[in-house]
Amino acid sequence: QKQDFGGHRLTLFTTPVEPMARETVGVVFENSIRLACSAIAWRNANILQLTLEWRSLQPCAKDYQVFVHVYDSAGNLIQQADHAPVGGFRPTSTWKPGEIVTDRIALELPRETARHYRLAVGLYDWLTGERLAPFSESEGRVLLDGRVWLTVPTE
Hints:
Layout: E1 2-5, E2 8-11, E3 21-29, E4 33-43, E5 47-56, E6 64-72, E7 77-83, E8 100-108, E9 117-125, E10 134-136, E11 141-142, E12 148-150
Antiparallel strand pairs: 1-2, 3-4, 3-10, 4-5, 5-8, 6-7, 6-9, 9-12, 10-11
């Protein structure tokens, strides 16, 4: 459920109708922030509820932005959400080592493409637009173009 208040959009998060798919991600950005896991749930067939669990490994001097990109089956960007973590209430420069920060995002997708897409997330420097290089702990390598691809359940 969404409502607009003077140019500000509020999204009500409720318990998902369908069970959430939880994925251990294990990707580290700049040796200081780990995307530990993600959880995805569907609401009303075309609203994706995404939860990202970030873990601070060491202090961050900068405030990074989170990006969430949704691509259709042809690779076209159909939706995106760029934001400071936790709606701007938890800038990365305030994170303490060992702290877990939970960030929730809701994306409304066109009904004709809902559940038939790919989802990518990452962090970037909002001043320069430069993406942080994610290092995959399981693959032992830096992921290309700063994107972490998440598994999206279709049912």
